[in-house]
Amino acid sequence: MAQTPGIVITGVSGRMGQMLARMVTDSDAMYLAGALERSGHPWIGQDLGLAMGGVESGIPVEDDPTAAFARGDVVIDFTAPAATVAFARAAGESGIAHVIGTTGFSDEDIAAIDKASQNTVIVRAGNMSLGVNLLTQLVKQVAAALDPSYDIEVIEYHHRHKVDAPSGTALMLGEAAAEGRGVALPDVADRGRDGITGARTPGDIGFSAIRGGDIIGEHDVMFAAEGEQIILSHKATDRSLFARGALKAALWTKGKNPGAYDMLDVLGLK
């Protein structure tokens, strides 16, 4: 890698993509090496700075990841599962590190990303914020300390435009709770209730997803028993915290061996 890493941003026209582009441009610790959008997007061929309503940047918006990856050291990716899997394969072939903030993956998607990580560094996290990753550790500890009479419910709140549920962060928190209890989340997850469902199954970890307005992201993990409730919470009030976490992860990849990592690795919490 170069001393100052070159960053390639996918989905650069989106809210997160534009925020990342501005933060990389303003940083002395990295530089913008490429900007990608899907084929047919109206920004393709335009100067990124002008497309974003600012001054000329000298960075054209492209739709060819192979060419862009050849010029960079790290690609930061907040797009959609199918696109991210394709980017992971391309990153594995080129050797560029891949920081993934995309959520909503299937088991098959994750397997494909893990396969690509055999050839390059991939950091994938359902949430890039320091606070959320600390919260996962707390959830794990509390779940391990409390007996199974405490029901666990993960409640997440997001804006009306979010397309996947439960959120990647909610699933991270559910995994942490399951790990604390020594069980596998797929065996105990209750991800939907409607109609006459009957009583709650003891030991289940429930998920509730709320969508509305412009909520950036809020997550509660409730441990409820007879006579008391313990609620651990995180509330995001500024989307830039996710971008800052992604950039921290991008810098962290330098010199690391190929493999699949997450933000707990980046933050030294493992």
Describe it for me?
By secondary structure, the chain is α/β, with parallel strands linked by helices. It has 2 domains: 6-124 and 239-266, Rossmann fold, CATH 3.40.50.720; 130-236, Dihydrodipicolinate Reductase, domain 2, CATH 3.30.360. It contains 10 helices and 12 strands. The chain has helices at 15-26, 48-51, 65-71, 81-94, 107-116, 130-145, 168-181, 185-188, 240-252, 263-266; strands spanning 6-9, 31-36, 61-62, 74-77, 97-100, 121-124, 151-158, 189-190, 205-211, 217-225, 228-236, 259-261. Strands 3-2-1-4-5-6-12 form a 7-stranded parallel β-sheet, sandwiched between helices. It has a 5-stranded mixed β-sheet with strand order 8-9-7-10-11. The longest helix is centred in the middle third of the chain and has 16 residues, at 130-145.
Q: What is shown here, in short?
A:
This protein is an alpha/beta fold. It is 36% helix and 23% strand. The chain has 10 helices and 12 strands.
